[in-house]
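Hi P.,

Sorry for the delay on this. The queue was packed all week, but I finally got your sequence through. Input first:
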Amino acid sequence: MTRRIRAGCLLVAGVLAAAGCTGDGRGAATAEGAPQSPAASRPSLDWKSCPAPSSKEGVPARAPGDEWECATLRVPLDHARPDGDTLGIALIRARATDRDHRIGSLVFNFGGPGGSGVATLPAFAEDYSDLRKRYDLVSFDPRGVGRSGGVTCLDDKELDAYYAAGSTPETTAEQKDLVGRVEKYAEGCRRHSGKVLPYVGTANAARDMDLMRQALGDDKLNYFGVSYGTELGGVYAHLFPKRVGRALFDAVVDPTTDPEDSALAQARGFELALGNYLTACTATHDNCPTEQQIVALLDRLGKNPVPGGEGRQLTQSLATTGIAQSLYSKDFWDYLTEGLEDAENGDGKILMALGDAMNGRGQDGHYSSLQASLAAITCADFSQRYTAAEIADKVPRFRKASPVFGEFMAWGLTQCTGWPVKGEWRNPDVSAKGAAPILVVGNTGDPATPYEGAHRMAQALGNGVGVEMTYRGQGHGAYDSGNSCVKKAVDAYLLDGTVPGRGTVCS
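Then the structure:
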């Protein structure tokens, strides 16, 4: 669960509408000096009309318009064996509208890990219309995600039970039950997706991006990374510093933390966001709960779930997930207020819808690959494995950090228990000496990737590479926040190459 809370809020609008709401690699490292493929032998892309979206991608289901085209890039399954088995990486593109002044391609990764770029970019492309004037907008499903060999672990019925089950055990027996469920989940992943599990890590995804860059015909990779996408971008910059073009890191992951420290920082981040929500709520509504009332509600749901629609029950786990989902953006705060009031009165549909969105459950009851891919990539990356006894000792510290989210996130450290693949690192190396300046934007009110991570990412990238910028606001990320200062600075950098002054602050 340590990275589950980073997953983007891609399903909320459609799922909430359905709920009737009324609220407003592994393998040898690629050397930087390795020769690039000559033009005649570069990976090729055959762009065609895009297929209809599928439930595995997990974004509001609407087919991309005629301006979008799709292709598949064949990459080595194991980059250490380039002549061995291959994997298809799904790409999507909308060409620049001002062809005479085209810069190149701008490649997006929207985070997760596990988010489908093929589905996400068309759904939110309007936010990037100014960038599209001079860039081809490109995104992709990373290996192990969506159409790129998306990881599967359990079926829909099993996932309903898995996400509803208790996730804050109080007794040794409950701890054993939780670990057993996690191990069953891991075994399902091995059974259904065992071939790709050893190769879905971030370093291999970064190597795929360099092949993508070549196939797109770009000498440098111009990149827009959000949330986990900043970690992926950092690893790319470490492996290929001389091939970094203009790169934006938004909603920045702290590359210096291990899973425990990351989960603890997120507990504090969501606690901060919850406090900001409660302060804003009391200024505009007369039905706002206190944090103590939210804690009491979650305790009651742990013993007595309430109806959540479709014959399902809103449990403590689903409600906690739903509350966390609503804190990603101020746009969801009214839904949270209504959902908490409804749950107090025995109606769990709104919080259930929010929890489903976080877990990747669509309106049709099918789950996307989002959370399975997230687990697979996380456990392929990180080597830490935590026992129930170790986590139990950490719970008081987590509970102190957040009475609402602390225990939930502490027990999420079981995520890789029993995982069939060993992790590659204790934390990623993103040092990128010699790379072009990378703009790193931190949001002071970001719950999922706390603000401090931006400073640490900028430092880790290296002197002269990481350029830190601050947005004093709320929500997960800055560019899509609606703040004109942030947008103006980022657009000037990506479109004109104008690097903001270090320490620039937007409010």
